[in-house]
Amino acid sequence: MRRPAPIDPKTKEGPPPLSDRPESAPGSKLRLALVVDFLFFPTNHTGANRFNCLVRELSQRHDVSVFATNESHPHLSARELQTLASREFAIPAERFVYLRRGRLDRHRLIARFFQELHYAARFLRLLHRHGPFDVVLVTTPPLLQLYVFSLLRFTERRAQLVIDVRDLIWNYFEYRRGPVFRVSNVLFRFMARWSLRRFNMAICTTSMQVDEIRALLPDQPVHLLRNGIEGSRFAQLAALAKPPAGQPLRVTYLGTVGYPQNLSTFIEAARLCAADPTTRGVEFVLAGDGSEWAALHKTVETQHLGNVRFLDKLDWDACLERVYGPANVLYAQLRGHPAFNSALPTKLFEYLASGRPIIYGGLDGESSRLLRAFSGVQIVPPDDPQRLYEAIKGFALSPRVNGFEANREILGSQFLREKLSAEYVRLLEEVARRQDRHPEAAAAI
């Protein structure tokens, strides 16, 4: 049930009914809402940085409001976050709505599901309170939140709904064994199909995601808009000096530390290197945060691995100085299951811009196909510590630090977010102009 609309203390009246609220006139500024959860400023996250660029581009032409959470900065109040965002984007502070939220329970599945439903329902109320909007863009939320956000079709009937797909989250039960997970996979695919039908458009970052959604919904408008890197960060990474001469070889991972990354492979490779006299001096750096962080930390302590260092989440300047600057080799991985083939970690674009060699562990999916177009990349089988150790040993015995200038040329011409964001805005403007604004709003569940 909706919370009653606030009453104006002067007129003693609430806002006009939804049917009486004005729509944007043709050619006027659009009112857009972006629901980005925790992936937004001031979080230093590669996914968040993507939407920072989009907000800047949108705000030059339209009125944009951002709905996010304070999960990554719980010590800051909503007002403090609004003030910081207003200064960063030169947009009125009231256009940034931060929902106070603690960390989701990453280990108890049932508890997490109820948390997701609760926060998604709160987002819906906030959207209605600050609306109406011409377009509501929702980034890929956890699965049950996707189901709740699809209900916007019934509560915000004038808005065009757009889903931004970064992960095929409904496929993540495919790699789990047992009858419960098989039933869950069927159920969640059905829920995803029902939910996605309520959106007017889907925007995907990889071609495999496009194929998956078209297989689920052949008539759904789907667009491919690849990810990339902001021009300012590209310039800073391109200007990095070579790692200090004489330091031990440093292999670095930066990003989310979760189940899909399976960074136990990274830690086991560190153990193998520590046992080999020719690689004993290699340093392993793991920078980031996620559900597997504590378990990996405990493994390193239990095995007394002195060649592994952990760095908590860092701001961008600290990442340049303490992560990218000293790194000799950068590492990334996705688990060896087809469910992860469609994913393309955003950090790979930062890795490529840094000019450092890259070791990537993965199957023949989107990430491997992209990386093959660049030099200085070695692809190894995923979840295989022995093959990763051998690749690192090859770098230790024969360092390769030059010849990657062509990578930056490709990034600069094809993967700058400023160019990609302009195309993103065009797609949102296109969907807002459509006459059919209510696709299957009353379809049966």
Describe it for me?
The chain contains 16 helices and 13 strands. The protein has 445 residues and is an alpha/beta fold. The protein has two domains: 24-228 and 417-432, 3-Layer(aba) Sandwich (Rossmann fold); 231-410, 3-Layer(aba) Sandwich (Rossmann fold), CATH 3.40.50.2000. Helix 1 packs across helix 16. The protein has a seven-stranded parallel sheet, with helices on both faces. Strands 10-9-8-11-12-13 form a six-stranded parallel sheet, sandwiched between helices.
Strand content: 15-25%
- Would you identify the regions where 5 or more consecutive residues have pLDDT less than 50? 1-24, 436-445
Number of folding domains?
A: 2
Biggest sheet: strand arrangement: 3-2-1-4-5-6-7
Fill in the CATH topology of the largest domain.
Rossmann fold
CATH architecture of the largest domain: 3-Layer(aba) Sandwich
Question: How are the elements arranged and paired?
Answer:
Layout: E1 31-37, H1 46-59, E2 63-69, H2 78-89, E3 96-99, H3 109-130, E4 135-139, H4 143-149, H5 152-155, E5 160-165, H6 179-196, E6 201-204, H7 207-216, E7 222-224, H8 231-238, E8 250-256, H9 264-274, E9 283-289, H10 293-303, E10 308-311, H11 316-324, E11 329-333, H12 347-354, E12 358-361, H13 366-371, E13 377-380, H14 385-397, H15 405-414, H16 417-432
Parallel strand pairs: 1-2, 1-4, 2-3, 4-5, 5-6, 6-7, 8-9, 8-11, 9-10, 11-12, 12-13
